[in-house]
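Query structure, 191 tokens:
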């Protein structure tokens, strides 16, 4: 279900939601609490499933919290001249395989459905990526504002900007000051 245009004025990521393999299950719980101004606070929790027929486990982990609010006024996103931006990165190409090789070195295997970076450039603390979803995930874009694989690929493009002196660490975002949710969907391609 697509939510109405709005924003997350506050988003805190407390702890990564880790799945050690593709068979591991976790129970999820999203708690929404209404506020007087029409916004909601939220929390996202998980817990391992109960073993056998035993009682439900109560060891819930808080993964994220924040606030979601209806959009107020109109939102006009900043525009960028994509041709000018591409030209400024033209002398700094990088193989998209670099992203996936670095992830494998961190023992993170994303699998073929997540390998959607078609082109990549890196210049100091900046990166530019052309991301194109494959046919399986592209067929699902109408169900999401931003398909999770597309969003993950955007974050992965940032990994080439990590300073080498810090080694091959895995970084998890801690939050965002504001995320705006517009009308429509992002589709299956992004720059």
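Result returned for the query:
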């Amino acid at each position: 279900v697509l939510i109405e245009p709005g924003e997350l004025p506050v988003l805190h990521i407390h702890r990564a939601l880790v799945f050690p393999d593709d068979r591991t299950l976790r129970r999820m719980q999203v708690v929404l609490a209404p506020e007087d101004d029409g916004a909601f606070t939220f929390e996202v929790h998980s817990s391992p499933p109960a073993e056998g027929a035993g009682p439900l486990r109560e060891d819930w982990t808080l993964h994220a919290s924040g606030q979601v609010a209806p959009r107020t006024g109109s939102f006009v996103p900043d525009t960028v001249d994509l041709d000018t931006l591409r030209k400024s990165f033209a002398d700094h190409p990088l193989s998209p395989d670099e992203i996936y090789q670095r992830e494998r070195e961190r023992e993170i295997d994303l699998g073929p459905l997540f390998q959607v970076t078609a082109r990549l450039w890196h210049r100091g603390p900046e990166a530019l990526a052309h991301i194109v979803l494959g046919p399986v995930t592209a067929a699902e874009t109408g169900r999401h504002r931003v398909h999770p694989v597309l969003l993950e690929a955007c974050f992965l493009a940032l990994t080439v900007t990590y300073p080498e002196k810090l080694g091959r660490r895995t970084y998890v975002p801690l939050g965002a000051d504001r995320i705006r949710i517009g009308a429509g969907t992002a589709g299956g391609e992004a720059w």
